[in-house]
């Protein structure tokens, strides 16, 4: 493997276009990171939100942050490659594997939420399957798979991750046999599993009848859980639709546009769309969770008050200094 690969020079207009596109990606990734940090902080600090189910939401937020950081590193590497006109294959493979790992981690996080929700609704009285111990075990297995699958591209003798001039990023080669495998593990299989589990749980909740053997208290509690589960399923169905809209164009282009006939602006849109959809999902979590939204509003109001107090304290010495100078002038005039 050559230590460096040389790429062709680009025109000034293309470079300016790349910088503008990179700035949009940077801004979107930073918004995702800030919003998900606020979500994680709220889930950790608010006592009523410290539940076993919150671990799944924290995991989704962490996966969004990890994916955004990987995208920032990828965009930074692209700018460095276009500036130096040299491609370090080892750094390119490392960045590409980070993108693959973060993509798998994000998709597996959504799948894990659907899986735990599926078990909770199908087996409402089995508390073990949704306990903290089991959820931690699910998360460990999920992240092991998310990091293990992309390492296959690093083990194979032929270089599988390369710098693609059309995508302007280090990613899996379109001629690689692993391309369909990664599309299946990171997109097709998670989407099929999420759709099937949501469908089965929705049918189970809407068609279930009252159980006469249960006491009135347990039956009332079960009905409340059903209403809550229906609401959560509808919300998660919204996330699934956004997930489908965000990733489908990119998958289609990568799979079928072998000759690079797609216009650059459309290709850029397919790369930006997954980030926009992650941003929409993060804002939807804040919108639907009243406790988290209220906590973020309290933090924002506290920050504004602290800023106003700080500005007020910095202005006081100036006024005092003016008052002292006026008084001293008056004293000297009387003398």
From TrEMBL:
Membrane topology note: Multi-pass membrane protein
Alphabetic keyword roster: Cell membrane, G-protein coupled receptor, Membrane, Receptor, Transducer, Transmembrane, Transmembrane helix
Top-rank lineage group of the source organism: Eukaryota
GO molecular function: G protein-coupled receptor activity
Keyword Signal: no
Regions crossing the membrane: 24-45, 57-83, 103-125, 137-156, 179-205, 232-253, 265-288
Keyword Transmembrane helix part of the UniProt annotation: yes
Domain G-protein coupled receptors family 1 profile: 35-287
Main location, first listed in the record: membrane
Matches recorded under PROSITE patterns: G_PROTEIN_RECEP_F1_2
Cellular-component GO terms for this entry: plasma membrane
UniProt subcellular location: Cell membrane
PANTHER family on file: B2 BRADYKININ RECEPTOR/ANGIOTENSIN II RECEPTOR, NEUROPEPTIDE RECEPTOR 15
UniProt name for this protein: G-protein coupled receptors family 1 profile domain-containing protein
Organism classification: Eukaryota, Metazoa, Spiralia, Gnathifera, Rotifera
């Amino acid at each position: 493997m050559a230590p460096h690969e040389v790429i062709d020079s680009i025109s000034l207009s293309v470079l300016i276009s790349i910088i503008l596109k990179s700035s949009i990606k940077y801004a979107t990734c930073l918004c995702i990171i800030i919003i998900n940090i606020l979500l994680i902080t709220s889930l950790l600090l608010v006592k009523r939100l410290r539940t076993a189910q919150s671990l799944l939401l924290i995991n989704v937020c962490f996966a969004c942050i990890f994916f955004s950081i990987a995208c920032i590193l990828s965009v930074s590497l692209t700018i460095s490659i276009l500036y130096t006109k040299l491609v370090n294959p080892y750094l390119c493979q490392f960045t590409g594997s980070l993108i693959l790992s973060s993509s798998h981690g994000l998709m597996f996080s959504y799948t894990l939420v659907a899986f735990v929700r599926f078990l909770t609704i199908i087996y409402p009285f089995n508390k073990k399957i949704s306990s903290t111990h089991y959820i931690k075990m699910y998360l460990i297995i999920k992240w092991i798979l998310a990091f293990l699958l992309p390492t296959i591209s690093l083990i194979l003798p032929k270089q599988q991750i390369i710098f693609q001039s059309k995508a302007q990023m280090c990613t899996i080669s379109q001629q690689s046999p692993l391309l369909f495998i990664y599309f299946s593990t990171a997109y097709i299989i998670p989407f099929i599993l999420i759709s099937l589990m949501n469908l089965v749980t929705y049918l189970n909740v809407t068609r279930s009848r009252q159980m006469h053997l249960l006491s009135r208290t347990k039956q009332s509690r079960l009905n409340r859980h059903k209403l809550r589960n229906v609401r959560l399923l509808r919300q998660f169905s919204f996330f699934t639709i956004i997930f489908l809209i965000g990733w489908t164009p990119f998958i289609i282009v990568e799979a079928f546009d072998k000759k690079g006939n797609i216009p650059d602006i459309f290709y850029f849109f397919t790369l930006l769309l997954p980030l926009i959809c992650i941003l929409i999902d993060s804002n939807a979590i804040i919108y639907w969770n009243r406790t988290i939204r209220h906590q973020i509003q309290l933090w924002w109001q506290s920050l504004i008050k602290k800023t106003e107090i700080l500005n007020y304290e910095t202005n006081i010495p100036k006024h005092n200094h003016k008052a002292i100078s006026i008084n001293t002038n008056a004293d000297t005039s009387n003398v």
